[in-house]
Structures are given as C-alpha cells and as structure tokens.
Amino acid sequence: MTPRTILLVDDDDLLREALAEQFGFEDGFTVLTAPEARPGMEIARSQPVDLIILDVGLPDLDGREACRELRQEGVATPIILLTAQSGDEDHIEGLRAGADDFLAKPISFVVLLERVHTQLKRHQASEDAVLPLGPYRFKPAMKQLLTADEKKIRLTEKETGILRYLYRAGGNAVPREELLDQVWGYHREANTHTLETHVYRLRQKIEPDPQNARLLITETGGYRLQV
After folding, report:
1. Prediction pTM value
2. Buried b vs exposed e over 27-61: b needs ≥16 C-beta within 10 Å?
3. 200 has pLDDT over 90
4. What is the CATH number of domain 4-128?
5. pLDDT per residue over 133-151, tens digit each?
6. Which CATH number among 1.10.10.10, 2.130.10.10, 2.60.40.420, 3.30.300.30 corresponds to the domain 131-225?
7. Cα–Cα distance measured from residue 174 to residue 176, given in angstroms and rounded to the nearest whole number
8. How far is CA 2 from the centre of its chain?
C-alpha cells in the first residue's frame, strides 16, 4: 500500500522518538518529526503530509494557534492535538482551532493509532482528500490529477471512480467484474469492453507511454495501481 506520511510535532524528545519508533513498526507509515511548532508548520507547508500530530504545549507557539494558522493558510490535512489537559474547555478550544481530534496525555499508542486510521479514512472520503498516486497528487472530489509542476489533468467521473477504487485496493489486483460493479453499479449496458475502453482512455492521460503502462497495470482478469 502507499505509505502515509505522519508529521509528529512534540517538544518531549523521549515521547516524540518513542512514537516515531512505534509508527515505524507499523506497515504503511513514514514519520517526519519536529520539536517545535514553527519547524513543524514549515514541513506541513513544504511537502505532502497525510496527518499531523501536534502537541498543544510547545515552547515557541501554542499548538492550537499553530493549528489555527495552518487552517487559515488552507492546509486541510487532518490534525490530532495532544495535551496534558483533559477538560472539556481545552477540547472545545482545540476543535475551534480546526483540529480534527484531541487526545490527552499520557497517550496509549493503540488508541492513537486507531484515531490516526479513523482520521485518514475520513479524510480520504472527504472533498479535501489529496492522495499520492505515482508522480501525481490525486484529488477525487475535483476529478483531477496534479503533476509535480501543478499541471492539472482532468478526469471523467468514471475515470475518477476507477482510480479511487484501485487506490483503495492498496496495490492489489481488482477483478474486472468487481470494478464494473463498484464503478458502474447495476447497469445492463456496462460490460468488460466498456471498462477496457475507459482504462485505455485513462492511460492516454496518465501514462508517459500508454503502450507500456507503469502505473495502471493489467493483471490476469483485472487491473491494479502501481502504488
């Protein structure tokens, strides 16, 4: 599956290193770290990040204010706030700052991991989702792919549906009949020829050499994404 990048911002060196190590043991995660808010915010602005874990009590800037600034700048990445306080007022203030979730210390990694998975799934289904896909950034809600130089590749509804479903398969092959069922639903005019035509057109848009596909791969009985 495509690795998810987590940005962990906490000034507690031991906690930060321990959490980074634990996420490193989990399949599908890459971890970036920062000891203060400002360096962490620069990372969030400068490179694709799938989720931010942000401590409230940072030495250079309150984590809630950092969250508020990122939201004002248009950063839609899910943010989980960590705090030593567990009161409702702190929780509400964090959510008002734009956080998606809130956890009080001491932290159970099992609980944190579950919250991370929940937020990633929720964000993937939202209009703000931006999914890494080969050399592109895939924006399903906008029906488009973005290249590294911000060039937009427009997709049809069915092309978007094909990519979204294959992306969710995490690099595993999906049978043609399953793709037809999930993207077209029950439609008596939809058949494998319909799917193959859409895949052909999609490859013309996203593959440098459509005759030698490297991203949208044909497998026996189906297709998969090289993620």
Report:
1. 0.64
2. eebebbbbbbbeebbebbeeeebbbbbbbbebeee
3. yes
4. 3.40.50.2300
5. 888 988 888 889 999 888 9
6. 1.10.10.10
7. 6
8. 9
